[in-house]
Amino acid sequence: MVETLGEALRASWTVEVRCAFGNRDGLKSIRECHHKYQLDLATLVWTRGADCPLDALADRLKCPMCHSRRVRLVFTAPGSTTTVRASSGAW
Question: Which of 9-18, 26-35, 64-73 has the highest mean pLDDT?
Fold first, then answer.
């Protein structure tokens, strides 16, 4: 079972972050953010450490477009169609 950034890097996983900020901010309607980006696991290991738990990573990220901390991480194992997802932010 892969639980840390170092283990995910050694297993050749990929990770994509997606903004999860919806079309509502309280009672106000806003434009929904659809920004997404492929993250580099090697850089994450260098900056966060190999022992950083995968489930803690989403809490440390913020969308550069809308500045929301509501993000979703999508981890994909090589040669797999199955993805593992993690979420962050106040819902």
Answer: 9-18
In 3D space, the residue among 39, 29, 45 whose CA is nearest the CA of residue 86 turns out to be: 39
Q: Which of 73, 69, 62 is nearest to 89 (CA)?
A: 69
Residue with tokens 């999508």: 74
Mean predicted confidence (pLDDT) in 31-42:
88
Tokens of 13: 């996983």
pTM score above 0.85:
no
d(CA 48, CA 42): 10
Domain limits, the chain: 5-87
**Residue 34: other Cβ atoms inside 10 A:** 10
- CA distances to 14, 63, 69, 71 from 34, rounded to whole Å, are 19, 10, 13, 11
| Segment holding 44, helix H or strand E | helix 41-48
